[in-house]
Amino acid sequence: MKYMLLIYGNEDCWTEDERKECMLESMKISNELQQEGKLISSDPLYSITTATSVRVREGNRQITDGPFAETSEQLGGYYLIDVENLDEAIAIASRLPPAKLGTVEIRPVFPKPELLDTATERKASV
């Protein structure tokens, strides 16, 4: 099953040395998961100061600088993994350095065949 591990944290909660150590440890875990065939993709994200949000309302595109959510914790990166079950995803999330000062949210990825089946069922019922 595929899971998205979303890394959240306060950008100001890490010292520069802690941030470097976090990146090194995260890269080590990414390499291990890659070797085990469990990692699909992972990347850190640039600061929220680089974010642009796009919304379309009543056919009008609205563009704003900044992140979607105005919270103290921001999305800082992700891991896309393919593991047997949620317990394995939790074990991996628990190893990630950002879990110590922030949050790792785990969400299953909606399989595309199911997505297509759901869309086809909706069209048939209309």
TrEMBL record:
Gene3D superfamilies attached to this UniProt entry: Dimeric alpha+beta barrel
Domain YCII-related: 1-111
InterPro entries: Dimeric_a/b-barrel, YCII
Family statement drawn from the similarity comment of this UniProt entry: Belongs to the YciI family.
Entry protein name: YCII-related domain-containing protein
Natural source organism: Aporhodopirellula rubra
